[in-house]
Request: fold
Amino acid sequence: MLYYLFDYLNQLGFPGAGVFRYISFRSAMALVLSLFITTWVGWYIIRRLRKMQIGETIRSLGLEGQTSKNGTPTMGGIIIIVAILIPTLLLAKLHNTYIVLMLITTVWMGGIGFLDDYIKVFRRRKEGLNGRFKIVGQVGLGIIVGVTLYLSPGAVMRENVEITKHNGITEIVHSPEVKSTQTTIPFLKNNNLDYRSLLFFIPNHRTAATWILFVFVVIFIVTAVSNGTNLTDGLDGLAAGSSAIIGVALGILAYVSSHLEYAAYLNIMHIPGCEELTVFASAFIGATIGFLWYNAFPAQVFMGDTGSLTLGGIIGVFAILIHKELLLPILCGIFFVESLSVVLQVSYFRYTRKRYGIGRRVFRMAPLHHHFQKAHDAGVGVLLRRPLSSVPESKIVVRFWLIGIILAVIAIATLKVR
Reply:
């Protein structure tokens, strides 16, 4: 909204109003504003949650420091959502297709998470929102994103085309703007994959079939990343800090993809209009970092599913909009491993119980971060016994952050390492 106001003032010749035309200025303002909102408004929301007695009920799992968290206010994801929406609405171009989709994603996933937390807290049902309704919501979002990208004239890209000059100098140029289902493949020189090529066995109506496939890909990514983030949200500051790191990487990828010269230099597709996503990414980074003011160990508030499902949905849709979804297994490596640990734990337990009559485990407890919290004497019948003693929660979180930083650097480096 402020963008349009200052754009109008700039047309009238108002001194300094033109600064809002620069994406770097608006991104910096979004970061500062979201930090301010989380720290200032956050305290008010936490007080309201305490007055309403919206506290987390912690089951005793034998984890270090677990009982002290009982009664900590939850549904703090509201703080993150507010701190993302307000700066974006004020500073971004609201007619931009990508911004509209990110706003829808934030509200949509936030609504699903809020319903889940509401049922857990007020209805006293620990299982929360029925899983099938969560899936319906995630499928609905995937359909909205996929169909919008197909129908919107503003969602286009320019494919990178390599041309070698006669004097030996290689120049990267881009094709005219087209609507495409291409995405970037890490580590490969010819790094564009078109989903259309996967449907070579469909000679007729391949374009329509490709977009249907693309919608299914969007649904899978939204579901996988949001659930992975939800599983990671088990230690103070783990999900928020990891998401902030991922947000920085996605912001960088969005900016270089929107800049014609940078996209040509890195030999990646150019996506006109996605520079506005840098403003959204800045608000996202500020919201998650600011949330750590209250969520870092020892946490004064938990984000709950209101926050974790929202963060995961945002990350998944953001990567799809900039055609970098195949980087998510690297960039979201923490979320991926946390989800994989649950799958391995459940699968191995069922297999050993069926074969030996007694279920055995791979980890002391899943998701993986709880394995490091569990005391070593609880490792009877467990494949992975190390570490031999429990690790303090704050140390686990910081180490996971460091791994997340390394993975983010690797994900960005894949643009040149081929």
Q: What stands out?
A: The CA atoms of residues 295 and 336 lie 22 Å apart.
